[in-house]
Specification:
The complex is a heterodimer of chains A (107) and B (115). Chain A has 107 residues and is mainly beta. Chain A is built from no helices and eleven strands. In chain B, the strands form two sheets. A six-stranded mixed beta sheet of chain B has the order 2-10-9-4-5-6, with no helix packed on it. In chain B, strands 1-3-8-7 form a four-stranded antiparallel beta sheet, with no helix packed on it. Chain B starts with a strand and ends with a strand. Classes of the chains: A mainly beta (107), B mainly beta (115). At the A-B interface, strand 5 and strand 10 of A face strand 5 of B.
Chain lengths: 107, 115
Amino acid sequence: DIQMTQSPSSLSASVGDRVTITCRASQSISSYLNWYQQKPGKAPKLLIYAASSLQSGVPSRFSGSGSGTDFTLTISSLQPEDFATYYCQQSYSTRITFGQGTRLEIK
Amino acid sequence: QVQLVQSGAEVKKPGASVKVSCKASGYTFTGYYMHWVRQAPGQGLEWMGWINPNSGGTNYAQKFQGRVTMTRDTSISTAYMELSRLRSDDTAVYYCASEKWELPWGQGTLVTVSS
């Protein structure tokens, strides 16, 4: 199975900061990479699909980039509602796999 | 609207089985694989497997081979995940998710395994 390595595992930041989370695949996955946001007690919510496409209804401060094995999720200016856990997920293989998550906390 | 609605929380004893349902609406149920993902308390997301609602074909994560069975009923657009020989470390929230990733996931079903 394809391994997804996400970093950092946790991150402290302030409202208004620019934040970047990275995800690396153990083999090339082209652009078959999704990013999710999860808040406590809720199902994951899709933010970015196909590495860089913004899901409908998601604020434009979220963006994704990358292809092959290296990907990034960027939040351009953190808002209070963005403090959550973020996961990457590869859909190149139908045997999907997730990164271990990045917990974004308020500094 | 498009939604996946899962069955309610379950409490089971070790060694028992649990069957979780996921009813799809607002899209073509047979058009996309249905995945099952679980999340233990305080942990990350773990893929369990998928079912092809059209053919009934399945693909399970090796970790769950022999203990998990995924089925579907196309007449009511519902997928099922049954996990047998439950252990305490199977305590988790279980989610269904369509492979049309733009669609929202199910709300999750908490399965608690406790004697």
